[in-house]
Write a structure and sequence with these properties.
Strand content: 25-35%
Radius of gyration: 16 Å
Order of helices and strands: HEEEHEHHEEEEEEEH
Strand order of the largest sheet: 1-2-3-4-5
Structural class: alpha+beta
Distance between the termini: 26 Å
Helix content: 10-25%
Number of strands: 11
Oligomer: single chain
């Protein structure tokens, strides 16, 4: 309550009485990796009818990410990091070695509102500082890749002294997106 969050919903998550359902989204493939035994996620976003795709965070497992992309017939042309924590960028060096010069790496600082072309599609950059000073989200029609800015039922952990900014940014830039995103 002191943080302006819903304590009952957070308790339900903590006590395993509720977890978010998996929602399919056209053009998005979730890739689960592990950092030790800790599960982490990355995503492949297909930018239109062609095979071009962007990696959104690495899932800390470049071989898994590359395998999922190859199985789906996707060609990685962009690697977009939501922030610099190891569970989001782990394995980046190996991933970039494998995809070579065809894939550009995007991370903070990026201009708020900048667009990244991926095949026929575009990802729009939204600066979302709070979880970390360098946090960004990547937005496309109907989908938002927000890193740790937002968790199911709560905010991600805020960087020291950034809670108010974090909460404001999530309300304005993420929760303010069109319904169904």
């Amino acid at each position: 309550g002191a943080l302006g969050l819903h304590p009952g919903r957070l308790a339900d998550i903590a006590l395993a009485r509720w977890s978010p359902s998996v929602i399919g989204c056209a053009g998005v493939t979730a890739v689960q990796g592990f950092m030790g035994t800790y599960p982490v996620w990355g995503y492949l976003w297909k930018g239109g009818a062609g095979p071009e795709a962007a990696v959104i965070d690495t899932a800390h497992d470049p071989s898994r990410m590359l395998g999922v992309a190859a199985k789906a017939g996707l060609r990685i042309v962009a690697i977009c990091l939501t922030h610099g924590h190891p569970d989001h960028r782990g394995g980046l060096e190996a991933l970039t070695r494998e995809v070579g010069a065809r894939a550009r790496v995007y991370a903070h600082p990026l201009n708020d509102g900048a667009e990244i072309q991926v095949g026929e599609g575009h990802l729009r950059v939204a600066a979302t500082p709070g979880h970390t000073p360098d946090s960004v989200a990547y937005l496309a029609d109907g989908v938002a890749f927000v890193g740790d800015a937002l968790f199911a039922g709560s905010l991600g952990r805020s960087a020291p002294g950034r809670y108010d900014e974090h909460r404001r940014v999530v309300r304005e830039k993420i929760l303010g997106l069109p319904p169904g995103t």
